[in-house]
Each structure stands twice: as C-alpha cells, then as structure tokens.
Amino acid sequence: MLLRLPTVRAKLTALVALSAVVMLAALPVLSWLLHRQLVDEVDDRVRDAERAFQTELDDDLADLALASRILSADGATASAIERKDEGRARQLAQVFVSVYPNIDVLLVQAGGHVLAQVGCEHPPDVVNSVPEMVGALSKSEFRGVVDHGCESQASGAPPAYMIGVPIPNVGAVFVCMPIDAEYLKNASAKLGLELALAVLGEGQRVVGATNEFPNPAVSAAGRNGTAIVDSADRSWAVQRFEPRQLHGRLGSVDMIAALDVTDIRLIVRHNLLYALIVLAAAALVSIVFGSRVAGVMGVALRSVNTALKRVEQLDYVHVEGVRTGDELEDLATGFNTMVDGLKERDKLRTTFGKYMTATVMEHLLAGKVALGGESLQVTILFSDIRSFTTLSEKMDPQHLVGLLNEYFTEMVGIVMQEDGVVDKYIGDAIMAVFGAPVPKPEDPVNAVRAAVRMRLALAELNTRLEARGMQRLRTGIGIHTGPVVAGNIGSEKRMEYTVIGDAVNLASRLESNTKDVGVNILISEDTYALTKGVIEARPVREITVKGRKQPVMTYEVLGLKGGPLLAQSDSAKMAASTRTPAA
Questions:
Q1: 274 and 221 together in one domain
Q2: Which stretches of 418-496 are DSSP H helices?
Q3: Which of 224, 242, 260 is the last residue of a domain?
Q4: Other beta carbons within 10 Å of 145
Q5: Is the separation of the CB atoms in 362 and 369 below 8 Å?
Q6: What is the mean pLDDT of each successive set of 10 residues along the chain, which is 583 residues long?
Q7: Do residue 323 and residue 388 come from a single domain?
Q8: Residue 311: what pLDDT?
Q9: Do 519 and 382 reside in the same domain of the chain?
Q10: If you ran DSSP here, which 8-state letter would residue 473 be given?
Q11: Within a domain: 329
C-alpha cells in the first residue's frame, strides 16, 4: 500500500517536537559530560606529566649514580681520603659539581668524619647519626630519600635523594640531589604544572612547593582521580601521584600536581549557554520546517514505492525528480542503480546464453569462479578456416562479415549443444572449452562429438554456399585434453574469464597441423584415450610441438561409432587405404 503524505508529516512533526524536548532535557547530562571530559583531559595531562617527571627523575638519578660511581672508583679519591688531603678531595668533588650543579658531594673518612664537601650550605661534621650513611660506611651501598640529604639535621634543609658508595677500608662517597623548591620549579617549567612535594609519614608534611601552588590542593588531592579545587578567583585541577624512585626512611613521598583550569571552566560554562541557545533555536526551526520536510519525504517515498511496484512487474523504470540532498536521494539513486543492475543482469543472461549453456552461465553469475584461478582438467577445441586470408581478399567487407556470422552461427550452436563454452574468437578461428568452469566426465566425448557435428554442418553450409555461387569453406579442428588454469585474467578495469596453459597451446598446434598431415579433425593421444570407446579414429603420426620435449601422437577422427563416417581429405583417404581404424 502506498504511503500517505499526512501520516508521514504527522509522524515527523511529532518526532521533531519530541526530539526538541529531549535535547533541552539533555542539558544537565551535557553539563556533566563536559565536566567529565574536563576531568579526563586533566587525568591524561597529569599522567603524561607523571611519565615525563619519572623520566626526568630517572635521568637525574642516572647522572647521580654515574657521578658517585666514578668518584668512588677513582684511586685519587681514595688516596686523598687516606692522606686526609682536604684540598685535593674537594678539588675532585668539584669536577662533578661543575658538571651537575644541582648535586651535593660529601667525602667521608672511615670513622664518619666529613673530610670535604662541595655544594652543601650546612654540611655535618660527622655522619654517625644518619643510619643510611653509617650503613654505607660499613661497606653497604645505599640509595634512597634521606631527610635533609647531605646537609646537617639542624639545617632545616629539604629531603634529598642520596647515593652512598663505600670505599673499602678508606671511607665513603655520598652524592645528594635535593628535592627542593628550585628542583620543583625546574620540573614545573618543563611540565606546565604547579607542583608540591608531600611526605606521608606521621601525618602529612609539605616539604616543598612552587610559588603558584594552591594551598587547599594538598588536602583535596587524592590518588583515586582528579579533584577540582577553587582557590580565591581561580580553579585548579589537582591530582596526586607517587614517584617510585622517592621511597626511603621518610615513608611515602608524593608529588601533587595542580593545573589551572579557570579559563577552561569558563569556556565550559559559555559552551553550555551557547548549547542552550542553539538547541532552542534548532527546536524552533525544526518544528517550523518539519512539515515541509515531511511533504518532500512523502513525495519521494511515494515515488520510490510506485517505481518498486512497477519493477515487481519486470517494468524497469527509474525514480525521477528526487532532489532532497539526503538519504532519500541516496535511496532513489540506489534504487535506480539497482534497476540498472537488474537490466544489466538480464542483458548478461541473454548475452551469456549466446556463448554457453545455462548451467555454466548460472555458475558464473553466482560468483563461483575463483578470482585467483583454479586448476581444471578440460578439453580444448580449436577450429580455423583454411586460406581465409585469400578468401577475404576476394570479398567485400560486408559480404565477408555476413559469411563469418553465418559460419559462426552454425558452429557455435553445436558447441553449446554439446555443453561447451566459446572462450574467444581469434579472427576466423574459434576456441571452445569443454569443462570450464564446471568440469564433467563426458567433456572429451562432448568435444569430439561437437567436432564431428561441426564437420557435418560445414558440409551442409558449403552446399548452400555453392548454390549461391560462393566458394566452399575448408576448416581444420584440433582437440586436446589436459590441465589448465581457469579464472579471471586481465586488469582491474577489464577482465576476461579464460583458460591458459600448455594444453591450450597444444590444442592450437594440433589445429595448425591438420593441414600439414592432411586431415580435418586431429586429436591428441590424451583425448583419444578418453574417447576411443565412442569414436572411429586412425593413428596419424607423432608430431613435435614447440616447447615439449616428447613428441605427441595424433589421431584423425573418422566419425562416431554407429554413425556415418566423415568425408576425408585425399591424403587421409590414401592413409586409410593402407591402415585400419585404431581400436
């Protein structure tokens, strides 16, 4: 039943009104989504910052480890400590501080007395009160965060990452990297975040922060996600992460990152306001023009529906006049394309029917042909008109084309009746294949029977040609059975289903040799072995085919068993008088 315009219009108007209500009701959800998107983006930013900070920290600690290793392994360092040469020891330490200016170095004697230091503002005199340093002096290397680092405990210095490397029987080398405000400032400049360092031991203690870091962020920051904190007139997204390298006696050392999102929150609020205005305007425009759109849709759908009914009656008509610029126009275009495809399919069926049997045609149209080719056992038949060039020189083009069409009509009809496929026309020659794309056991017999019938049909055609005063046609037929590769061959723009292989070449050579050996139908030994039970034939001779090492035995087909024998050429008659047909 055809769609009615008022029904479509009413449904679309109701749908548009409902959509407008839903859009307005979705504003709170949109607000939450925008907030969630903001938090997710901050999470990504902080995760990236955490990875960058970890990488930067790894690089710094690698520099620290390198300095401690080289300094402790240098014999000059051990010698200076043993001799208590403070000047020489400081000179050796100064080399590394000049390369890594943010580190402190202590050179300590075996008893814990500090011989020399570089970089420390308040160095200790002895290190016996720091367990980590005492362990390093007793031949146990230490790595980790130490309160006050290489400074004295009374200095109030920030924590530092320390590496203590013992020098056996001499003392130890201690290299420290303070995690102070200057370090956080450098990291903040690289990461684009405000940073604070908190130590979670007995309570939470902030040991360092950048100048712009918001104080309320320390208590609001958690490890489970991002928190939004308002401080004065600014909004901050705050998140906490734990650098894996900063573990030590102090307990868990956390880094708190704060990102200024004041402008982003203002943009979110403005976007919500704009969204409200746009949604309200869209709802109004949708309701006003909904009825008009419904009318256009109704007309378009009715046109498609009417054309569909006509196609069901095999009346291939197009849908005209659908210019909606949307899916309806695509639907009409697709419908027209489908109609063209149906017409082309019918045309293909009609065209294919002129070249092959219905079974083969259905096989091809069903898409069962392998795209990359498949190996098949087939029988190939080549038929050619002898001395055609001489004949064509004596006839005008129109009469020549008419003669060829009359000849092909007779021959192709016989090939198709015997379940063969005309692969191609090569000038006045015909190449037919029996067994592709659907091989059958009786393909060789069908091919030979087709050749016999083609000879009989040629005799009748010649009788008609002579009655019209035209020259008789003489043909040669070569048949061979063997493996080929069958499939779609060509380019992406132009493909042809055909067969290729040595068997094709041999069949062509057999046809060209019919004139040389003086026979009309010449088959190979392979074909003869498969058809000798139903044909009369005689052996001719072995022929050498280019590209083959072994000669090929050939046979002349005299006719079908129980049927009339074919007319033979003079040379074939002479050979037949001295030989009996092959068993």
A1: no
A2: 443-467
A3: 260
A4: 22
A5: no
A6: 50 65 67 68 73 82 87 88 90 86 88 88 84 79 83 80 88 87 78 74 66 73 70 77 64 72 72 71 66 65 74 72 66 76 68 58 63 85 91 87 93 93 90 91 96 95 93 94 88 77 94 92 96 95 83 94 76 49 48
A7: no
A8: 74
A9: yes
A10: P
A11: yes
Q: Are residues 162 and 227 in the same domain?
A: no
Same domain, 369 and 474: yes
Beta-strand runs (E) in 24-157: 104-109, 114-118, 142-146
From the centroid of its chain, how far is CA 5?
Answer: 45
Is 50 contained in some domain?
Answer: no
Domain that holds residue 301: 1-42+265-352
Give the number of other Cβ atoms within 10 Å of residue 284's Cβ: 11
Give the Cα separation of 473 and 274 in Å (integer). Answer: 88
- Residue 446: per-residue pLDDT: 97
Answer with the one of 113, 145, 178 that is the final residue of a domain.
Answer: 178
Closest by CA position to 523, among listed 448, 443, 578: 448
Give me the residue label for tokens 């059975």. Answer: 481
Helix (H) or strand (E) holding 256: strand 252-260
8 Å CB contact between 558 and 583 = no
d(CA 122, CA 160): 14
Q: Is the separation of the CB atoms in 354 and 473 below 8 Å?
A: no
Q: What pLDDT sits at residue 326?
A: 66
Query: In 323-418, which ranges are continuous DSSP H helix?
Result: 327-352, 358-365, 388-393, 397-417
Q: What does the pLDDT read at residue 2?
A: 44
Contact between residue 530 and residue 445 where contact means Cβ atoms under 8 Å apart: yes
Q: Is the dihedral of CA 552, 553, 555, 561 positive or negative?
A: negative
